[in-house]
Specification:
235 residues; alpha+beta; Glutaredoxin; 4-stranded mixed sheet; globular; binds glutathione
Length: 235
């Protein structure tokens, strides 16, 4: 059994999609990050980094209970555990390259683009431009790569498509504007539409509706999500 620590945000939603695709049994543990549940000692024992997603596999290697944190690590772990969606051994260098491209590029730049456009107490034009442009540049790289391809790695759907989908699904929020956010990236848009139509995507999306996650951005949420805006407190 997998215990899946979840909040309906991009990185955990990748894991929701992976679990739904491979059909592993899992128990959802809601972590309401706007209420600061990622900072409790119980959750820190699962993810010392205090972020979602994380999982505990009660039947890990050698039959031992194992924790795994960080969405890319979890995708690889579940892919290797099930032998599903990780491509062939020959695909491995390409799979790792694109997985890390998303983990270190698309994801963090998208997250910072969202932060500086919606959450930062000051609207800093420099930061907004920097992160939006980096997101667009990463989208361009993917768009070019997908020119004559249906999937990011090899000829099949893989954890890399799942990882990219988690962030591309948020493109309207990452790159708000007048037009359709992916209009300038036609290959990426075609790829996104195909992945988004998978039945497992609808099931992954539905997970977010199972719990009354806090939506208000009040001081409790601000302190929980952006502790660096406040004086350091001992935990
Ligand atoms: N590199 C991590 C990033 C995880 C992350 O930033 N998660 C966000 C949700 S998408 C989170 O937990 N935010 C709450 C917080 O930062 O306190 C991953 O890929 O899992």
């Amino acid at each position: 059994m997998i215990r899946f620590y979840f909040h309906p945000t991009p990185n955990p939603t990748k894991i929701a999609l992976m679990l739904e695709e491979v059909g592993l049994a899992y128990q959802l543990v809601a972590i309401d990050t706007s209420r600061g549940e990622q900072h409790t000692p119980e959750f820190r024992a699962v993810n010392p980094n205090g972020k979602v997603p994380a999982i505990v596999d009660t039947e890990g290697p050698g039959g031992k209970e194992m924790r795994v944190f960080d969405s890319s690590a979890i995708l690889l772990y579940l892919g290797e555990k099930t032998g599903r969606l990780i491509g062939s051994p020959a695909d491995r260098p390409v799979l790792l390259s694109w997985l890390f491209f998303i983990a270190t590029g698309v994801g963090p730049f998208s997250g910072q683009a969202v932060h500086f456009q919606y959450a930062a107490p000051e609207k800093l034009a420099y930061a907004v431009n920097r992160y939006r442009r980096e997101v667009e540049r990463h989208y361009e790289v993917l768009d070019e790569h997908l020119k004559e391809r249906d999937f990011i790695v090899g000829n099949d759907y893989s954890i890399v498509d799942i990882s990219a989908w988690g962030w591309l699904d948020r493109a309207p929020r990452v790159l708000p504007g007048d037009g359709v956010p992916l209009a300038a990236f036609p290959n990426l848009e075609r790829w996104f539409r195909a992945i988004d139509a998978r039945p497992a995507v609808a099931r992954a999306r539905a997970l977010g509706k199972t719990h009354a996650f806090k939506k208000e951005m009040d001081e409790e949420a601000d302190r929980a999500l952006f502790p660096s805006n406040y004086a350091k407190v001992a935990r």
